[in-house]
């Protein structure tokens, strides 16, 4: 009976050893593939950089939206036109700074928004109501995302 237990224990030991060997083999293949790919670390870095760019873009869009909302209130309250024009210029600079890291589609949308801000500047001279309507349209676009 002790030989049967010994044989059973040997089989179990062999099975465990075989399982560990197969697992080690699989892990070594995965590790080898990662380290043989020279772009592996670069891919992670690029992915993190893209995520950071996206976060920065979202932050800038949020700030732009907040400034436009504040500007809208200022226009309704009849704030000094020169201050309003300066604020519009600041908002445009903020949007233009986003052009460098944006994809082609986003760049096009930013340029369109920049033109709308120019139009608001002109509308403020002629008709405040039109400027407010254009700001509302622009705010809606910002809420939806560029």
Q: How is this structure best described in words?
A:
By secondary structure, the protein is an all-alpha fold. It has a domain at 53-144: Four Helix Bundle (Hemerythrin (Met), subunit A) (Up-down Bundle), CATH 1.20.120. Helix content is 88%, strand content 0%. It contains five helices and no strands. The longest helix is centred in the middle third of the chain and has 37 residues, at 40-76. The termini are far apart. The mean pLDDT is 82.
Observed structural traits:
rod-shaped; mainly alpha; 5 helices; 88% helix; 146 residues
Write the layout of secondary structure elements.
Layout lengths: L1 H35 L3 H37 L4 H17 L6 H23 L1 H17 L2
Distance between the termini: 78 Å
Instruction: Give the low-confidence spans.
Output: none
CATH class of the domain at 53-144 equals Mainly Alpha
Q: How big is the Rg?
A: 31 Å
Largest sheet: none
Strand content: under 5%
Mean pLDDT: 82
Envelope shape: rod-shaped
Oligomer: single chain
Number of helices: 5
In brief, what are we looking at here?
The protein has 146 residues and is mainly alpha-helical. It has helices spanning 2-36, 40-76, 81-97, 104-126, 128-144.
């Amino acid at each position: 009976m002790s030989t049967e237990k010994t044989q059973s224990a040997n089989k179990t030991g062999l099975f465990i050893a075989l399982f560990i060997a197969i697992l080690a083999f699989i892990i070594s293949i995965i590790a080898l593939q990662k380290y043989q790919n020279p772009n592996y670390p670069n891919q992670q870095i690029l992915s993190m950089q893209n995520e950071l760019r996206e976060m920065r873009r979202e932050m800038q869009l949020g700030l732009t939206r907040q400034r436009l909302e504040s500007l809208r209130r200022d226009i309704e309250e009849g704030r000094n036109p020169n201050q309003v024009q300066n604020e519009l210029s600041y908002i445009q600079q903020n949007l233009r700074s986003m052009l460098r890291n944006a994809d082609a589609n986003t760049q096009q949308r930013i340029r369109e928004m920049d033109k709308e801000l120019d139009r608001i500047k002109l509308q403020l001279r002629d008709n405040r109501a039109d400027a407010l309507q254009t700001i509302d349209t622009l705010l809606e676009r910002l809420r939806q995302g560029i």
